[in-house]
Input
Amino acid sequence: MDNFIKNLPKLPNFIGMGYCNNPLSRHLIKRGEIEIKAAYNDTKAKTYLLSEGKVLLKQTANGRDPLFTMAEASQFQMAPYQEVLLGYLGDEPRFAMEVLQDLDNCSDNIINESLRALAMKHMVEPEHVGALALANSLLSWHKSHKFCAKCGNQSQIMDGGYRRMCTSCGAEHFPRTDPVVIMLIIKDDHCLLGSGHNFDPTMYSALAGFMEPGETIEDAVRRETLEEAGIAVGDVHYLTSQPWPMPHTLMIGCIGVATNYDINIDEEELRDCKWFSRNEIKRMHEDQHHDELKVPPSFAIASQLIQYWLINE
Ligand SMILES: [Zn+2]
Output
């Protein structure tokens, strides 16, 4: 058994990938109504405040702090029944709440920032970014799942936000995670990158797409690559994953080996798609490309797949 483990390929630390480090313990949550109330009234409890995917931040002498005491949070107008108990840091409960009021009318020392910009610009300590990803995914799910999908009546929040139950038929509903495959397709010393219609035209990234029901990860990689680029894929290897909380996606990062070179772009999906040599990708990664073409920043899993390929010649 030891040899089996030793012989498994070593994966790197995917340094700088956003939304991945969440220090909160969820398994410690006691999810009954009494326990949730006790956690809420705990003097050590703190909460993240979000509004339509934007994160509220306190400007302090030491920088920006996304955590508010319950007393500070009570000064904001909150969406009803939207507070969720994310988990615990040690014995300190950490909640997330949806703020309803106009963010332009907050006091001077409160700013707001999109979760994406906050992660990209490293605006808060890294420990908060994963917890905020969880917060945005859960709050978004509650906002769009107020009614029972089975009978159409109202459902109510349960288990501190990790479940909803229909008040009429009793059906249970659980927070959703949408799996997306994202794959670096390689052949010989080249890799395949695409540029979407909503991208900066100089930005090229790994192809990606939502998985479909009844599909393996490997088959989703093959289907999406064939649909978007006309490239057939043989071997597929899973590498790593990244929560992508806009609003509740899981990016499943893979390397796929192409069996043909001829690209046939799906123009509805992609503006452009090309094979790039290893040297060209190196220059793009280092912002040294002669046409200023770029690959995504390190906080995105696409960049991590590219970096993994670059260091493993
Ligand atoms: Zn129902």
Notes: The longest helix spans residues 126-144. The chain has a mean pLDDT of 92. The chain has three domains: 33-144, 148-176, 178-311.
